[in-house]
Amino acid sequence: MGRSIGCWVALSLASSHKRVCSVILVSPFTTIRNLVEGMVGKLLSYLIKDRFKNTELISNIKVPCLIIAGLRDKLAPSKMS
């Protein structure tokens, strides 16, 4: 289970370990750069190194995944889920 930036940790572990039954993600985001872009704009977002690429990791997940996102979440919009 991971929440916000912890979703990257949860996805990393789940994609590299075989004995995972399921994954729960709370307020996930696509990439850290996309998250910052939504807050400060596209130009400034390129100053952020794009390390937390959840979109790449989620493709490796072969178990059920529950995604919980809030419609009024200001930090990680539900459209990123």
> Mean pLDDT across all residues, rounded?
85
Q: Radius of gyration from the CA trace? A: 13 Å
Distance between the termini: 15 Å
Order of helices and strands: EHEHHHE
Strand content: 5-15%
Output the keywords:
alpha/beta, 4 helices, globular
SSE arrangement:
Layout: E1 2-3, H1 6-16, E2 23-26, H2 32-40, H3 42-45, H4 54-58, E3 65-68
Parallel strand pairs: 1-2, 2-3
Short description:
By secondary structure, the chain is α/β, with parallel strands linked by helices. It has helices spanning 6-16, 32-40, 42-45, 54-58; strands spanning 2-3, 23-26, 65-68.
Describe this entry's structure for a reader:
The longest helix is centred in the N-terminal third of the chain and has 11 residues, at 6-16. The chain has a three-stranded parallel beta sheet. It has one domain. The chain has 81 residues and is of the alpha/beta class. The model has no long low-confidence stretch (mean pLDDT 85). The chain has helices at residues 6-16, 32-40, 42-45, 54-58, and strands spanning 2-3, 23-26, 65-68. It is built from four helices and three strands. It is globular and about 40 Å long.
